[in-house]
Amino acid sequence: MGPPVNAATPSTASSAGEDMLTNDQRFLLTVIFGLYFGPHLQGERPPHKSALQRVLERLPRYTQDRLAGSKLMVAQMIHVYYYILRKASQSVIVAPPLLLKFFRDALPPRMLGPGFNYPLFIDLFPTDLHPCSRVEERFMAIDNIVLIDNPSTSYLREEVVVRFKNLTGLQEFVLEKDAAKLPIYVTDEVFYQLIAREERSEGQPHFSVPRCGSHGRQCNISMAFSPLDTTGATAAWSAGAGVVWNAEVELAGSITGRVTLAESEDSYLFNVSLPGIRIDQSARRALQSRACEFPAIYNFGDSNSDTGGKSAAFHRLLPPNGDTFFGRPSGRYCDGKVILDFIAEKLGLPYLSAYLDSMGTNFRHGANFATGGSTIQPVDTRIFEGGFSPISLDIQLSQFEQFKARTLELHAGKSDYAKSSLPRPEDFSKALYTMDIGQNDLHATLKSMTEKQALASIPNILNKFAVAVERLYQQGARAFWIHNTGPIGCLPHYFVFDPPESNATDKNGCLASYNKIAQEFNMQLKTLVSKLRLRLVGTTLNYIDIYSAKYTLISEAQKHGFGGPLEYCCGHDGDYTLYCGQKAIVNGTEVVGDSCSDPSKVISWDGVHYSHAANQWVANRVVDGSLSDVQVPLTESCRESIHS
Asked: Are 333 and 606 a contacting pair, CB within 8 Å?
């Protein structure tokens, strides 16, 4: 369909029958869902191009193989629509049931009116590329769509911009991203729009909701506003429903606000804004205890989570590192994002800057102290000569302590820099502390010891890890997210660059004895985390089984669209071996440790580190809590689990 939204059209409402969408309603549907949402494509860096921009600028149609494979909840899209129209007249707002029909291309022609010339949702997001789906069999979602909180409007005609601002009451197009997020998801497709009323008795306000929605169907509102104790509120949250705490139900008074309600077989979900409503505080505390709003992340680790520390301290990583997502080296040992980046995305936080990177860095939402080659053990001659980083975990902890102390000093001095670029003092105790380290300790022992000696060294390594956690606890850390180590015996590096003496392999071709050492390390780490839970009062410690996710991916590589499990993408082997990005002249010819043609089909990026695609696959299983020993999702990891 052509670009009619850019045509100058009158802003007055249509005079058609009440069942027909007005011109303004149709205009806003197209602009809001076309402007603030776009296709989620692999490798496309923010700012993303909106669906409307692609239509109006006549950009080439993207194909299935470019899609990122993400899902966006329909409830969140609806919430964004109403958030944008929070200042608008009710006459231009479409009710929730019609929005659902708009998404499914189910609006009857009589509602669209004669001469309808705006793109429909399926014109913006074709169903073959953006089908409706279900998450956990309950949540309605649309595939491969991304929310754009600061969309480009340069391609819109001036009269379109003016009309949008007049209808919405907004002066700019930028969304407050957190405000436009829906904290709870809709569990079914049935929506009610209810009217709340106020009456006064002895000078005190009471709020009521009639027992019939605007759709004309009877609904039992006592279920919406029933007394909820802490147990009931917690149970409702666990079932996936939102709770409007407690409010008094009466049947008289003037209109004071509206309630949007979604229904499923066993629960209701509400979005309510009523001035002066009285809340049951015990139920409120129960719900708040389930939702985590981490203001910052502090990460400690090695190259698996390094976002520029080693690159800033020693030497910049060479291309093609970073090419898939960032388009340039980003300090990550990867063609794109590491698992830590996906964790930050899930929490709605920016990617973490390396503490050691002083160039244009903002630490408002945390800092990354990880550096490639770091170990848990303090560096001694054996470790240093093995080529590992001198910035071991104890040094990273010292850097954090200095960072926190200087942050507090600058805030106390009313520094403008502290206000704009450093965490708030209270954020340190509310932040998430992530730890992904230990792999290099095992590498170091295997390079200098027998396998038996390597196994015997694990308790000493983990004792130092425990000391690090306790140091962070003394600094106010209360929420920990701890990754175990991956299957080191499956790293192609060992077969290409550093062949071991023993070649006993498992069914996937991995070195069985090396993986056995990693599994022993992980078993002892899990036991340690359980002990720390008992010692460190008021903390939540989540142990994440990264090993299982990575080994599953390696075992099922072809099933998930990858090539051979022990292939790697970047580097050069054969008669002359080069690491990723290196160059050399061999017999008068330049040899390059270059990238393979399609990194998305390879699990290992450079023989040691995982590719962007593999990290994304693992991260999807990390954040949902299925790899947590207490089965707590990342977004709820500030609270204790009933399983712990």
From this structure: yes
Per residue in 234-258, pLDDT (tens digit) is 333 333 333 333 333 332 333 333 3
**pTM as predicted:** 0.58
User: CA 191, 193, 199, 205 torsion: positive or negative?
Assistant: positive
Alpha-carbon dihedral sign for residues 58, 64, 70, 73: positive
Write out the E strands in 176-253.
190-201, 204-208
Q: Average pLDDT of 363-392?
A: 92
* Residue positions counted in the chain: 644
How many CA atoms within 13 Å lie on the side-chain side of 347? 31
Question: Mean pLDDT, to the nearest integer, of 104-119?
Answer: 68
Q: What is the mean pLDDT of residues 66-91?
A: 82
Query: Letter for the amino acid at 266?
Result: D
Peptide bond into 183 cis (omega under 30): no
* Nearest-10 crossing angle of helices 23-35, 158-168: 100
Q: Which two tokens stand for residue 10?
A: 């009158």
In terms of pLDDT, which residue wins out, 350 or 86? 350
Residues whose CB is less than 8 angstroms from the CB of residue 637 and which lie 6 or more positions away in sequence, other chains included: 292, 432, 479, 481, 540, 542, 625, 628
SS3 content of the chain, % helix, strand, coil (to 5): 35, 15, 50
Q: Where in the sequence numbering do the catalytic residues fall? A: 303, 606, 609
Beta bridge partners of 254: 198
Written out in words, the top-level CATH class of the domain with range 297-636 is alpha beta
Domain edges within the chain:
4-168, 190-288, 297-636
Q: How far is CA 99 from the centre of its chain?
A: 26
Rounded percentage of the chain residues whose pLDDT exceeds 70: 74
